[in-house]
Amino acid sequence: MQYIYAFAEDQTLTNTELGGKGANLAEMTRLGLPVPAGFTITTAACQRYLTNGQAECDFLKDDLMKAVQQLEATTHRQLGNPEQPLLVSVRSGAPISMPGMMDTVLNLGLNDQTVEGLAKQTHNPWFAYDCYRRLIQMFGDVVYGIDKSIFEAELTALKRAKQVTSDTDLTLADLKQLIQTYQTLYQNTDDAQFPQSVTAQLTLAVEAVFKSWLNPRAKTYRRLHEIDATMGTAVNIQQMVFGNYQGQSGTGVAFTRNPATGEPGLFGEYLLNAQGEDVVAGIRTPEPIATLKAQLPTIYEQFKTLANQLERHYQDMQDMEFTIEAGQLYVLQTRIGKRTPQAAFKIALDLVNEGLINRQTAILRLKPAMIEGLLHPVFDPQALKQAPLLLTGLPASPGAATGAIYFDAQQAQVAHEAGEKVILVRQETSPEDIDGMVVSQAIVTSRGGMTSHAAVVARGMGCCCVVGCAQLSVDTDQKQADFNGQLLKEGAIISVDGHTGRIYLGALGQQTGKQQAALNTILDWCDAEAPIDVWANAETPKEVATAFEFGAKGLGLVRTEHMFFGPERLFKMREMILADQLSDRQIALAALKELQLADFKAIFELAQDRPCTIRLLDPPLHEFLPQATADQVALATALQISPAEIKRRIAAKIEVNPMLGHRGSRLAVTYPEIYQMQVLAIIESALAVQVEQGHAVAPKIMLPLIGTAAEMQLLKQQLTATIDTFLAQQAQTIAYQIGTMIEVPRACLVADQIADSADFFSFGTNDLTQMTFGFSRDDIGHFIGAYQEQAILSSDPFQTLDQDGVGALMRIAIQKGRQTKPELSIGVCGEVGGDPSSIAFCQALGVDYVSCSPYRVPSARLAAAQVALQTRV
Ligand code: ADP
Ligand code: MG
Ligand code: MG
């Protein structure tokens, strides 16, 4: 088996065998770029070495010596020959880039003789000894595991003793003294010696690089990035070029485009008279690459041409290492450059416009998770490094916010009106808190999961939110909260990171996410590829407008209960709920209908001819009831009854298991007038908009929590009768539909029967998950962590669809539903509608559209296109 390939050798191997660095060095050599000569030992050799129990490298020795001889012939230098010493670097290079995780040795081939030879030959003893001390330092670190910092400490001590600040200010004598000291460090640490035999240096370095595949930081990195641990690393042996030589010498790193913004043009840094990693090590402050243009104009132009050529060849932004030796430019590495989300979109768009790649390639290179950071502010990454972390909760809604904490919605509102930036901190939120939530920079709750009230409402508003903070306890009465042992009073300043769920003490600098033109263009390309549409869950005119701005094709879920949150509405709602006879309820309902008419009209106007799915009242009624005594008294006055009577009626509504209680369509079975009011408000406003705007409006009326075919049939008949009577009176027609959410497991199992009277299905995956697992979505925050840590669940099923369980029920429902009605429209309107892997699954099941909160629409559009392109490949 051939284990060694010269860079210049004609071969067709890839990163798998040659490692990323080696494959690109070979590629660049073949392109005729100025790459120092060298060869690559394959990953197969590493695997063989490591599986041999690291016994020896014998199987490689002959080949290695042959490869060295060939390199000696090419470079007209010999390893260990003081007259013409060949110096090489021994560089690791894994198949998948693991920056800085493994080891490299530079200047190998120097010993007490060759260093003198190099000094004589270059007429530069200082340079020769600088290389030698670097070799002894790196070799000690890489081969003998002597900590870098021990060498650095000696270097610093020497500089201090000599009262100089820069390495380059040390004299030749200083360097020789340093080399002596370094050699004693070998003895102290390992009773070892720096080998004077250059072949020993080479074999030991190669073996050390092989072994570095198994060092702890490389292992951790592989685990974090899910990189196959059996691949092994390649080793590159390459002739040294010297940026620390003299005259026009230096070394640098550069990107072909700005990795932060994506702007075209060289971006990078360099240092004159420096070697290897001096630029990134922060020993001296490097110069921006633009300065090179003034300092060494010819080299700069040469480098620019070379960078351009590499980018065209690899069809992507490149991250390059270069070295200049005595006015001669060399390129030492190139790879696909890492970049910020903003840069990723800009670069993808520019590369398509420049004709380097096609749209499909551009789409596949992007990641849905990149988008959230573009739509919401983020904290300054520098500031985050030192920020004092208080605690971590579930990242319910992305964003970054700093503000003063308040523990009840009213106080938050007052502070907001006084001009303060506020953060609402609660045990959990309820509809009563809505006014405080609207004015908050961020919402934090100690309880609740990713689909709790706070999470859902915050996501809808695009407001930063962290929920389920187990280490937070809120004392509303004392106006203080315990943040993981730290007691904070009302008005204290905290910073909330909705991207990570982390909460910090004090203010942090932030960067505003700006939605960029590149994103919109690329998302339009996505829509052309995706077979599954993306709709939005939205209810306020602001959310609806945002949803359409972000490209939603329709509204998959308009939750009507959220429309009763405002103080005036909540009051009417309470009157309606607590009325104990039909006539009183109808008076309150009539007032609510007026308000609903305006709500729906605003939505239909914004939606134009796009479909709007409006869900009728869903939550248990007691959620709307007043808890504070003052509110109860006000209500008693309005209803002209005693406070005691109000208390009695409220108590009568309390349920033991409200989530499984009197809610959803069950409300309509007992109080048909509520849904009748709602459908009339929907149809009347749709009709008004239809006349005004001159196009058809097609409302989709959706019944929540249907579990039996008879329930569906009964309500469908009632509501159809109500609507048709009204339309007949008006002598008008409207193309409305009445369908159902599929969110009770039983509904999935009898979907064929339900489909008889349902015009469409929409999976409510939040409730369906809750009822399939029997996990309360408002309490899962307490134990989901333990479930994930112990690998009982790989992810939160409220965020990522549980394909095995919930997914199986969905498959049954779709198959049965379409058995009855082959053309049945089927959507998904739970929170998982915005999750990329869930989208792929839904598409495979034959779902027509997914619907998610407005701020997730853009990433869902990208995910949908990627699913399609990947399955097409
Ligand atoms: P890493 O993967 O950690 O970047 P590298 O193998 O790229 O490690 O090498 C570390 C540093 O040494 C880089 O700055 C690189 O440019 C430099 N270097 C590597 N080989 C040579 C060489 N033959 N001549 C000069 N500099 C080199
Ligand atoms: Mg490198
Ligand atoms: Mg539901």
From TrEMBL:
<feature type="domain" description="Pyruvate phosphate dikinase AMP/ATP-binding">
    <location>
        <begin position="301"/>
        <end position="348"/>
    </location>
</feature>
<keyword id="KW-0460">Magnesium</keyword>
<dbReference type="GO" id="GO:0050242">
    <property type="term" value="F:pyruvate, phosphate dikinase activity"/>
</dbReference>
<keyword id="KW-0067">ATP-binding</keyword>
<feature type="domain" description="PEP-utilising enzyme C-terminal">
    <location>
        <begin position="515"/>
        <end position="867"/>
    </location>
</feature>
<dbReference type="InterPro" id="IPR000121">
    <property type="entry name" value="PEP_util_C"/>
</dbReference>
<dbReference type="Pfam" id="PF01326">
    <property type="entry name" value="PPDK_N"/>
</dbReference>
<feature type="domain" description="Pyruvate phosphate dikinase AMP/ATP-binding">
    <location>
        <begin position="61"/>
        <end position="297"/>
    </location>
</feature>
<dbReference type="InterPro" id="IPR010121">
    <property type="entry name" value="Pyruvate_phosphate_dikinase"/>
</dbReference>
<dbReference type="InterPro" id="IPR008279">
    <property type="entry name" value="PEP-util_enz_mobile_dom"/>
</dbReference>
<feature type="active site" description="Tele-phosphohistidine intermediate">
    <location>
        <position position="453"/>
    </location>
</feature>
<feature type="binding site">
    <location>
        <position position="767"/>
    </location>
    <ligand>
        <name>Mg(2+)</name>
    </ligand>
</feature>
<dbReference type="Pfam" id="PF02896">
    <property type="entry name" value="PEP-utilizers_C"/>
</dbReference>
<dbReference type="InterPro" id="IPR040442">
    <property type="entry name" value="Pyrv_kinase-like_dom_sf"/>
</dbReference>
<dbReference type="GO" id="GO:0046872">
    <property type="term" value="F:metal ion binding"/>
</dbReference>
<keyword id="KW-0547">Nucleotide-binding</keyword>
<feature type="domain" description="Pyruvate phosphate dikinase AMP/ATP-binding">
    <location>
        <begin position="17"/>
        <end position="54"/>
    </location>
</feature>
<feature type="binding site">
    <location>
        <position position="559"/>
    </location>
    <ligand>
        <name>substrate</name>
    </ligand>
</feature>
<dbReference type="InterPro" id="IPR015813">
    <property type="entry name" value="Pyrv/PenolPyrv_kinase-like_dom"/>
</dbReference>
<keyword id="KW-0479">Metal-binding</keyword>
<feature type="binding site">
    <location>
        <position position="766"/>
    </location>
    <ligand>
        <name>substrate</name>
    </ligand>
</feature>
<feature type="binding site">
    <location>
        <position position="615"/>
    </location>
    <ligand>
        <name>substrate</name>
    </ligand>
</feature>
<dbReference type="InterPro" id="IPR013815">
    <property type="entry name" value="ATP_grasp_subdomain_1"/>
</dbReference>
<feature type="domain" description="PEP-utilising enzyme mobile">
    <location>
        <begin position="420"/>
        <end position="501"/>
    </location>
</feature>
<dbReference type="GO" id="GO:0016301">
    <property type="term" value="F:kinase activity"/>
</dbReference>
<feature type="binding site">
    <location>
        <position position="767"/>
    </location>
    <ligand>
        <name>substrate</name>
    </ligand>
</feature>
<dbReference type="InterPro" id="IPR002192">
    <property type="entry name" value="PPDK_AMP/ATP-bd"/>
</dbReference>
<dbReference type="Pfam" id="PF00391">
    <property type="entry name" value="PEP-utilizers"/>
</dbReference>
<feature type="binding site">
    <location>
        <position position="765"/>
    </location>
    <ligand>
        <name>substrate</name>
    </ligand>
</feature>
<feature type="active site" description="Proton donor">
    <location>
        <position position="829"/>
    </location>
</feature>
<dbReference type="InterPro" id="IPR018274">
    <property type="entry name" value="PEP_util_AS"/>
</dbReference>
<comment type="similarity">
    <text>Belongs to the PEP-utilizing enzyme family.</text>
</comment>
<keyword id="KW-0808">Transferase</keyword>
<protein>
    <recommendedName>
        <fullName>Pyruvate, phosphate dikinase</fullName>
        <ecNumber>2.7.9.1</ecNumber>
    </recommendedName>
</protein>
<keyword id="KW-0418">Kinase</keyword>
<feature type="binding site">
    <location>
        <position position="743"/>
    </location>
    <ligand>
        <name>substrate</name>
    </ligand>
</feature>
<feature type="binding site">
    <location>
        <position position="764"/>
    </location>
    <ligand>
        <name>substrate</name>
    </ligand>
</feature>
<dbReference type="GO" id="GO:0005524">
    <property type="term" value="F:ATP binding"/>
</dbReference>
<feature type="binding site">
    <location>
        <position position="743"/>
    </location>
    <ligand>
        <name>Mg(2+)</name>
    </ligand>
</feature>
<dbReference type="InterPro" id="IPR023151">
    <property type="entry name" value="PEP_util_CS"/>
</dbReference>
<dbReference type="InterPro" id="IPR036637">
    <property type="entry name" value="Phosphohistidine_dom_sf"/>
</dbReference>
